[in-house]
Amino acid sequence: MEKIKLGVSACLLGEPVRYDGGHKLDRFLRDTLGQYVDYVPVCPEVECGLGVPRESMHLEGEPGAIRLVTIRTKRDMTDLMLAWSRQKIKELEPENLVGFIFKSGSPSSGMERVRVYGAGNGPRKIGTGLFAGVFMKHFPRLPVEDEGRLHDPVLRENFIERIFVLKRWREMLQQGEKLNRLVHFHSRHKLLIMAHSVKHLKLMGKLVAAAKEMGSSSVLAEYEKLLMEALKLKATVKKNTNVLQHMAGYFKKQLSGDEKKELVDVIAHYHNEDLPLIVPITLIVHYARKYDREYLEEQYYLSPHPLELRLRNHV
Ligand code: SF4
After folding, report:
1. How confident is the model at residue 62 (pLDDT cuts 50, 70, 90)?
2. How far is the CA of 102 from the centre of ligand 1 (A)?
3. Average pLDDT over residues 193-199
4. Is 85 in the pocket of ligand 1 (CB under 6 A)?
5. In terms of DSSP H, where are the helices of 58-197?
6. What is the pTM of this model?
């Protein structure tokens, strides 16, 4: 499998680029997710010419007039960082990234809740790192997260699911007969989309049905927008339970009394949060194979990302 191209704040991979020559190695990102990902590391502060070691910086000011300033000597680095960031975005465009993992809390790389110092009582967590802000504005649909939020199993599963879906979507766009492939892509992702938003699934179904009249470029652009919007919405226990019950309906008539009871019990235990999602999923995979339900077997909902990442063992 071709690896996924993902941007990352360089210090998270262990590169000694922090102001004091240190790093912020995240072992999950480097060692586990790294098996499936080709990282494109970016350190805005080093790459814009500030070097290591350097004076540390923070954000200061009021909303609408926030500046990046060195803490001790009060040098204003805002214009330098913004000019470099705009240039860097142009260099990143051909990389075809499917997302970015930012370093939390950084005045250059933090994607949200970065401390902003003002005249009042202490810092407020209202800022965005300057490079992260430019990146997110330029690539508004790309999945982004920070390493702090990725410690939450639900956010982690959601982000990794999105980057795998986007990779498959991009691969589809590179092939011919796009509208036929769109029908196939949509069919295999239906239940995965349903786990995030039934409303989006309906809109996307209508779009695919009208694809021939609308022409490929506008349909594909609208489909991608809806897809990324849908997947950003959390797949809650309630929504997953709904999808599991829907899937169970496909082999209801074939299951023996014992099998039916086991499946109903397992879904109920998942719903009560006594069992992780991987348990009902494994059982449904087993029955889909046993009773030859090809439509279910093909659903990416059953395997949206490699099993070895164990993301559904914790949600
Ligand atoms: S947080 Fe960003 S700017 Fe700071 S060291 Fe890490 S990559 Fe560089």
Report:
1. very high
2. 9
3. 98
4. no
5. 78-92, 130-138, 153-173, 178-194
6. 0.95
